[in-house]
């Protein structure tokens, strides 16, 4: 049976690509790049696991069996390289988070070794498919391998857009299903792929995937509307004291912030994909976020903000500034992230869960220097006074008055 190798054995893959692949009748060999915990849990159950779809008070369970083998890269590297070089492998998919797309990362090193072994074996063409929330994810991945002539001639890197809300499973979910490897998801699922596969691929369209010549309009709409709003609610919600995205969105001030961010900043920055009404799409996204059954924690969405904010919010900021507009709400969202990561406490002084690669550095900087970090703000935004002035003013207000008061005041004036 044809096989996909997937790198990144997290909950999102098991709730998204693995489902499409099962519907297509292919098998997955899944590789865990770091932790062995999920590998052990899946092996103990013969690699079957439960997908628990929650919608309000309703829950449906599905047993998934498309993953037929698992490997732990740190301790089984030779086996991982061998399966990457196997002629029976024609597609490799990735969900490895934004931080892995850097020269010399463990994932890049693993793929480099696997592609070199594939070239020596003359194992045939391959598609390496990023399924991470990065603009131009395929292009960015391809750039990491451009120096290798065999790879340029034999490997494609299709870009994709993936969408499904997948919160962390809870003890109650595991007890309900009796499955330590259970994954939880909303009913909605979507996948758009660039049609550039040089060898056999799964018929993912059987599960509803869309193949297109250009994913860019879909990508910008999804990242700026869904992911940008998600991050905004995560940081503002956590500062106010909300644990979950759904309860944050139920807060009238944060609901108003989400609506004004999308309507006044995000939608004017987008070109709609063919056949997509952006206002209807936005309303559907906010309805999905209100699904109280998901219990998607603000702290989970808030992870790695220094990597996510440039992608999810700053593209909107740049486009609105270029159009001569004032991205008021995106600036407030950026200030909320900076307050979250550098302040480390909510409005009531309670410690926040902060997981960010730049947290220590940002906490050591005075407020007026926070916007000079090039990894986040580039070389341009620190010199945009309409942006820096607004963010620093918001940051001072958040520190002085608290997020709840500032957001309530700003959204009602």
UniProtKB/TrEMBL annotation:
Name it: Mannitol-1-phosphate 5-dehydrogenase
**Could you tell me which residue ranges the Mannitol dehydrogenase N-terminal domain spans?**
3-205
The alphabetical list of record keywords is: NAD, Oxidoreductase
Its UniProt entry gives the catalysed reaction(s) as: D-mannitol 1-phosphate + NAD(+) = beta-D-fructose 6-phosphate + NADH + H(+)
> What domain of life does the native source organism fall in?
Bacteria
Family to which the UniProt record says this protein belongs: Belongs to the mannitol dehydrogenase family.
The Mannitol dehydrogenase C-terminal domain, residue ranges? 214-397
Higher taxonomy: Bacteria, Bacillati, Actinomycetota, Actinomycetes, Streptosporangiales
* EC numbers for this chain: 1.1.1.17
Q: Name one Pfam family in it.
A: Mannitol_dh
GO MF terms on file?
oxidoreductase activity
Q: Which Gene3D superfamilies does this UniProt record tie to the protein?
A: N-(1-d-carboxylethyl)-l-norvaline Dehydrogenase, domain 2, NAD(P)-binding Rossmann-like Domain
Annotated source species: Nonomuraea spiralis
